[in-house]
C-alpha cells in the first residue's frame, strides 16, 4: 500500500473539495443494477453541503499520490436535532440529554472501492475521533447492513437501538450506535 497522508479540514475548506468527495462517495458504493447512482450521489452532496453549517464540523481526508482515497466527516450533536427521538429500546435516564458538545456525530465515512479492506476506513475513523473533544460519538446505519454493523462493533461501537426515519429519509428506520471517547463514559 502506498503511503497515505491525512488532512483535517474546517467547513470553509470543504466547498472546494465537494466534487472530489462526491467522486469518492460514488466509487465507494459502485454501480447497483437498476439504481440511478446520480440520485444517491446528489443526495449525498445535499447532506454534505447541509452539514457544513453544523457546530464543530470537521472533515478528515486520506490522500495518496492520486488524490483523495477516503474521507470522514462529522459535527457536534445539537440538542434540538432530535437524533434520539423514538429510540427503541428506551434508554436509561439522561442518555439522550445533549448539550451541544457532549456527542459527535460521525456522519459519513467513505473509502474508494480499490482501497476498501485495507484498513483505510479504520484509520480515517481513528484520525477523526482522536481529534474530537466530545465525550462520546454516535452514528446511524442502514438496519440491513449486518456486515457494517459487525465492523463497527469490532471497532468498539455499541448498538443502542433503532429510531424511525424522518419523512423523506432513505430508510424507514436507522440503527444508532455509540462509542465512548473518554474513559468512564457511560453508554446506556
UniProtKB/TrEMBL annotation:
Name of the protein this chain belongs to: Ribosomal protein S18 acetylase RimI-like enzyme
Keywords, in A-Z order: Ribonucleoprotein, Ribosomal protein
Ribonucleoprotein keyword on record: yes
Ranges for domain N-acetyltransferase: 4-182
Pfam families linked: Acetyltransf_1 (PF00583)
High-level lineage: Bacteria, Bacillati, Actinomycetota, Actinomycetes, Micromonosporales
Signal peptide: none
Keyword Endoplasmic reticulum (UniProt): no
GO cellular component, one term: ribosome
UniProt xrefs under InterPro entries: Acyl_CoA_acyltransferase, GNAT_dom
Single Gene Ontology MF annotation: acyltransferase activity, transferring groups other than amino-acyl groups
Amino acid at each position: 500500500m502506498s503511503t497515505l497522508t491525512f488532512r483535517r479540514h474546517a467547513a470553509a475548506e470543504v466547498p472546494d473539495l465537494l466534487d472530489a468527495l462526491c467522486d469518492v462517495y460514488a466509487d465507494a458504493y459502485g454501480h447497483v443494477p437498476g439504481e440511478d447512482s446520480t440520485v444517491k450521489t446528489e443526495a449525498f452532496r445535499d447532506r454534505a453541503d447541509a452539514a457544513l453549517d453544523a457546530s464543530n464540523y470537521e472533515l478528515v481526508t486520506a490522500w495518496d499520490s492520486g488524490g483523495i482515497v477516503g474521507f470522514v466527516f462529522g459535527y457536534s450533536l445539537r440538542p434540538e436535532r432530535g437524533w434520539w427521538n423514538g429510540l427503541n429500546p428506551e434508554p436509561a435516564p439522561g442518555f439522550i440529554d445533549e448539550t451541544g458538545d457532549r456527542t459527535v456525530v460521525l456522519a459519513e465515512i467513505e473509502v474508494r472501492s480499490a482501497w476498501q479492506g485495507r484498513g483505510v476506513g479504520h484509520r480515517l475513523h481513528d484520525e477523526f475521533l482522536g481529534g474530537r473533544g466530545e465525550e462520546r460519538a454516535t452514528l446511524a446505519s442502514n438496519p440491513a447492513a449486518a456486515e457494517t454493523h459487525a465492523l463497527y462493533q469490532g471497532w468498539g461501537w455499541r448498538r443502542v437501538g433503532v429510531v424511525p426515519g424522518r419523512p423523506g429519509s432513505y430508510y424507514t428506520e436507522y440503527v444508532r450506535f455509540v462509542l465512548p471517547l473518554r474513559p468512564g463514559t457511560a453508554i446506556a
